[in-house]
UniProtKB/TrEMBL annotation, chain A:
Cofactor section: ferriheme a; Cu cation
Organism: Paenibacillus donghaensis
A GO CC term attached to the entry: respiratory chain complex
Class in the EC hierarchy, top level: oxidoreductase
Annotated protein name in UniProt: Quinol oxidase subunit 1
GO molecular function, one term: heme binding
Alphabetic keyword roster: Cell membrane, Copper, Electron transport, Heme, Hydrogen ion transport, Ion transport, Iron, Membrane, Metal-binding, Oxidoreductase, Respiratory chain, Translocase, Transmembrane, Transmembrane helix, Transport
Automatic annotation (TrEMBL), chain B:
Residue stretches making up the Cytochrome oxidase subunit II copper A binding domain: 122-234
UniProt protein name: Quinol oxidase polypeptide II
GO biological process, one term: ATP synthesis coupled electron transport
Species for this entry: Paenibacillus donghaensis
NCBIfam families: QOXA
Gene it is expressed from: qoxA
Biased composition (Basic and acidic residues): 289-303
Tagged with keyword Nucleotide-binding: no
Keywords linked to the UniProt accession: Cell membrane, Electron transport, Membrane, Oxidoreductase, Respiratory chain, Signal, Transmembrane, Transmembrane helix, Transport
Main location: membrane
Membrane topology listed for this record: Multi-pass membrane protein
Sequence similarity: Belongs to the cytochrome c oxidase subunit 2 family.
């Protein structure tokens, strides 16, 4: 055993991180033991198959990762705030921007969105749970342990350092001899499998478990967006799986798929990566469009304008998303014809996206717009995302991209689409649906404080980057000289980053403050909502709906409130529920060991844990537990209690 | 609720910055290709500002008019399904804009992928640009000169860079002379850059390539014909020959500073095949085994001539290193008269 490989010879920063990780772990273990919460944790959370709890865990993990990725971002901005900064060295900086990209996209944006999906989709379609509750738990634990595997990389063995796109040959053994990119291939693989399972699970859920009367064209827009997103997941993620498998073979078993010698093709990786990677950005942005559609309609007190064209625009975007991947390497020299084709397909995406923007604007028109926190994020999204969109069209022009490619202009563009497009959306959705899950609202005053910090700082941070790109600053530079003249704008950007950090801290403080002081909401419908999720109690009982609702219109709950079209007609009967199971958690933990062993080529533990994975999967397949029934009397009692009546 | 104050300030400053701000390299072109791209970029910015203006005006108007206020307390918004004419309108107009920009894109892309219009009748000067670790090697097969980390070119002369890499993918970028293109280990890529103003321009690698990436810069010097001729003469007389051992040592260095030699490495370490061959595969079986192992495997450089077993993937050997490369079908028409 060569222990040298496990060590990270880093700086005080990394040692500090190690110490804090150890202390936090000890703190958690001591705390759980002292308050005797181990049993509660295992029974209520680790073994749960309830979509709401799984969703909450997803969002919790995503918030943690948001701060991990945010600290990375702050370190980068600090290092480049002035010329010749000595805060990080090149190696450390490379690791930081790589993990920032991976964590923010794969372990923050995606789980946050999947978390909201988990919580809301079954409620919006009037279902009791997702189609495969246990698989849902498997999804979560695979994601979670994949994320943890990537997160321990910087204290054990070193993080990936070849950029989040890990282009070969740079990411091959020859140029990246550390274990960092082994972590990359295995951590992404494990959580990617989880995401793929989620995709299948939600397609089946939405297609098969809708409430009676809810035709496809009567589904809420968020449900539509999630359905389309999961179709993209099912088509795109297998490509990532294959690419990562080839990468793993290259790095761990010495094959030559992407290497320089023996006929390896470096650009094959780039193609595979972006065939997954481009649809991936639509995977995080389409549900966001769905969230905005819900919020716009609710707070302008109007139904969504142009429902049909909204649905079709999303379908068209999902198809186009698979036809544009080569715009990530116009500069590979594939000739005028190929570049022109991809330019046109890329620009074509602007058309359906523009349709959505105008539909939102016309939803607002003639409405009565109230400026709540979720609505503020939505209203901020429209103008800022439009900047991201038009710069996207500029980047889509192949010739012009020869000047933008890999510069800060590109970095500014994708932050201008991803942050308003995905981050603002999940924050808006978080504020919007929070009272549904926990039974109280987040404080509006604090929410608006955080909003203004975030919105203004965001623009201060990223707008200067457009100019830096045109001035010739490439991305991923850990330092630059005085005479380049990049200093002042980078300093401005750093100031904005500090403001963003303050905004996110206020946001988290708001969660704490509201938990302690906000009045409880007993109506289950604090925002005067329009769709089914507001038609049940808050917090939501385990079975979601005492009686399965009957749907006749698009905004079913609104129709009940305004036109008196009743949702519930039947009597309460006994309800069938799935039982909890610890197997998904155990499976995730074994996967973690498996991944870690492979990263360091520890063959014996790898083989043992590989066998362990097969055993747990077999055990899950032969599981004879068919769940249990909640008797009608118990349901009636729960309903009364939630409505605040005495039993 | 006007939250766009800072944005407006930024936009106004953008518009003020646009006309020839000298610190914005991309919009301060010193060569025909860069000028084409700069014009394209400015055109697209103007079109996009128009799009933004429409969205912003609508947005502000709607927010001001329909916000919840005391005066519209009892107002109940109508139920609107949508309007097919309006929706058709905002499908049609973007399509027109995209079509217009597509035409611009195709035209400008083919313009910068070929020799600039003004220099069509010249035989381009061929310079091989190869990267290793964090430095650039420039080889002039015609003159028999090799430089490291700086490249000199005559003004008003078509220059054809042929790029490849001894390691990771890099991207050769001289913002004021034109766009960038990748240099890869298993194929040649081609880039036409010319300067029409004498001066020194910064060039760099734009594609992340590991630890020393931030320092991978070089100087591109555009000089008058006479100065260029003098420089070539001086190098031939004073600079040392580039021996194989010397070159091997160079490849292994991280950074090398500026160096000048009076012979090129192309004679004993030939470049890989041409990309355009590989792109226009004629249906024969693609043999991925690259004949130029000696090039790919830095640790073992043989002074052997081209391997005799040419594969489709290699394309034709380039017996004359300074001849223009065979062109792909795409730009055949633009090469009439050759």
């Amino acid at each position: 055993m060569d222990l040298e490989r496990f060590k990270v010879h880093g700086e005080p920063l990394i040692y500090g991180a190690m110490i804090s990780i150890v202390l936090a772990t000890i703190g958690i273990i001591v705390g759980l033991t002292y308050f005797k919460k181990w049993g509660y944790l295992w029974r209520e959370w680790l073994t749960t198959v309830d979509h709401k709890k799984i969703g909450v865990m997803y969002i919790l993990a995503a918030l943690l990762m948001l701060f991990r990725g945010g600290i990375d971002a702050m370190m980068m901005r600090l290092q480049t705030a002035a010329p010749e900064m000595k805060f990080l060295d090149a190696q450390h900086y490379n690791e930081v921007f790589t993990t920032h990209g991976l964590i923010m996209i794969l372990f923050m944006a995606m789980p946050f969105i999947i978390g909201l999906m988990n919580v809301i989709i079954p409620l919006q379609i009037g279902a009791r749970d997702v189609a495969f509750p246990r698989l849902n738990a498997v999804s979560f634990w695979l994601f979670f342990f994949g994320a943890m595997l990537l997160n321990i990389s910087f204290v054990i063995g070193g993080s990936p350092d070849a950029g989040w796109s890990a282009y070969f040959p740079l990411a091959s053994l020859e140029f990246s001899p550390t274990v960092g990119n082994n972590y990359y291939s295995l951590a992404l693989q494990i959580s990617g499998i989880g995401t793929l399972i989620t995709g299948v699970n939600f397609i089946v859920t939405i297609l098969k478990m809708r409430a009676p009367g809810m035709k496809l064209m009567k589904m809420p827009m968020f449900t539509w967006s999630v359905l389309i997103t999961n179709v993209i997941i099912v088509f795109a993620f297998p490509v990532l799986t294959v690419a990562l498998a080839l990468m793993m073979f290259d790095r761990i078993f010495g094959s030559q798929f992407f290497t320089m010698a023996n006929g390896g093709m470096d650009m094959l990786w780039a193609n595979l990566f972006w065939v997954w990677g481009h649809p991936e950005v639509y995977i995080v942005v389409l549900p966001a469009f769905g969230i905005y559609s819900e919020i716009v309609a609710t707070f302008s007190k109007k139904n969504l304008y142009g429902y049909t064209s909204m649905v079709f625009s999303m379908i068209i975007i999902s198809l186009l998303s698979f036809l544009v991947w080569a715009h990530h390497f116009y500069t590979m020299g594939q000739g005028v014809m190929v570049n022109s084709f991809f330019s046109i397909t890329t620009m074509a995406i602007a058309v359906p996206t523009g349709v959505k923007i105008f539909n939102w604007l016309f939803t607002l028109r003639k409405g009565r717009i109230s400026f709540t926190t979720p609505m503020l994020y939505t209203l901020a999204f429209i103008p800022i995302f439009t900047i991201g969109g038009v710069t996207g069209v500029m980047l889509a022009m192949a010739s012009a991209d020869y000047q933008y490619h890999n510069t800060m202009f590109l970095v500014a563009h994708f932050h201008y689409v991803l942050i308003p497009g995905a981050v603002f959306a999940v924050i808006a959705g978080f504020h919007y649906w929070f009272p549904k899950v926990f039974g109280f609202r987040l404080n509006e005053r604090l929410g608006k404080h955080a909003f203004w910090w975030i919105i203004i700082s965001f623009n201060v941070t990223f707008f200067p980057l457009f100019f830096l790109g045109l001035m010739g600053m490439t991305r991923r530079m850990y330092t630059y000289s005085e005479e380049t003249g990049f200093g002042p704008l980078n300093m401005l950007s750093f100031a904005g980053a500090v403001g963003l950090a303050i905004g996110f801290v206020i946001l988290v403080y708001n969660i704490y403050w509201s938990t302690r002081y906000m009045p409880r909401d007993t109506t289950g419908d604090p925002w005067d909502g329009r769709t089914l999720e507001w038609a049940t109690n808050s917090p939501i009982p385990a079975y979601n709906f005492a009686v399965v609702p009957k749907v006749q219109t698009r905004d079913a709950f609104w129709s009940q409130k305004v036109d008196n079209i009743q949702l519930y007609e039947e009597k309460i009967t006994k309800i069938h529920m799935p039982s909890n199971t610890g197997k998904p958690f155990i499976l995730g933990a074994i996967f973690f060991v498996f991944g870690f062993s492979l990263v360091f080529s520890l063959w014996i533990p790898a083989i043992l844990s590989g066998i362990g994975i097969l055993i747990v999967m077999a055990a899950m397949s032969f599981d004879r537990d068919h769940g249990f029934y909640i008797p009608a009397e118990e349901v009636i009692a729960t309903e009364k209690k939630l409505r605040g009546e005495t039993v | 609720m006007n939250k766009k104050g800072p944005l407006y300030a930024l936009f106004i400053s953008l518009v003020l910055l646009l006309p020839g701000c000298s610190s914005i390299a991309v919009l301060n072109p010193k060569g025909p290709a860069a000028r084409t791209l700069s014009d394209t970029i400015i055109l697209s910015i103007l079109v996009m500002l128009g799009v933004l203006a429409v969205v912003y005006i609508l947005y502000i108007f709607i927010l001001v008019k329909y916000r919840a206020k005391k005066s519209n307390e009892g107002y109940i918004p109508p139920h609107e399904e949508g309007n097919k004419w309006l929706e058709a309108l905002w499908i049609a107009i973007p399509i027109v804009i995209v079509a217009f920009l597509s035409v611009v894109t195709v035209k400008s892309t083919s313009a910068v992928e070929n020799i600039a219009e003004d220099y069509k009748n010249q035989k381009p000067l061929v310079i091989y640009a190869s990267s290793s670790n964090w430095k650039w090697h420039f080889s002039y097969p015609e003159e028999g000169i090799e430089t490291v980390n700086y490249v000199n070119m005559p003004v008003h002369r078509a220059v054809e860079f042929r790029m490849y890499s001894f390691g990771t993918i890099t991207s050769l970028w001289i913002p004021q002379l034109g766009g960038q293109k990748y240099a890869m280990s298993d194929m040649l890529t081609k880039l036409h850059l010319s300067g029409d103003t004498v001066g020194s321009y910064i060039g760099k690698n734009a594609n992340f390539s590991g630890k020393g990436f931030a320092h991978m810069e070089f100087e591109a010097l555009v000089m008058s014909d006479a100065d260029y001729a003098d420089w070539v003469k001086e190098v031939k007389e004073t600079a040392p020959e580039l021996t194989e051992d010397e070159f091997k040592g160079l490849l292994e260095m991280d950074f090398a500073g500026r160096k000048t030699y009076s012979s090129t490495h192309l004679t004993f370490s030939p470049p890989p095949g041409d990309h355009s061959e590989h792109m226009s595969g004629d249906g024969t079986e693609m043999d991925m085994d690259n004949g130029h192992m000696d090039h790919q495997d830095n640790k073992d450089i043989h002074p052997s001539p081209e391997p005799s077993s040419q594969t489709e993937f290699d394309g034709e050997p380039n017996p004359e290193l300074d001849q223009p490369l065979p062109t792909s079908a795409v730009d055949e028409e633009t090469h009439e008269g050759h």
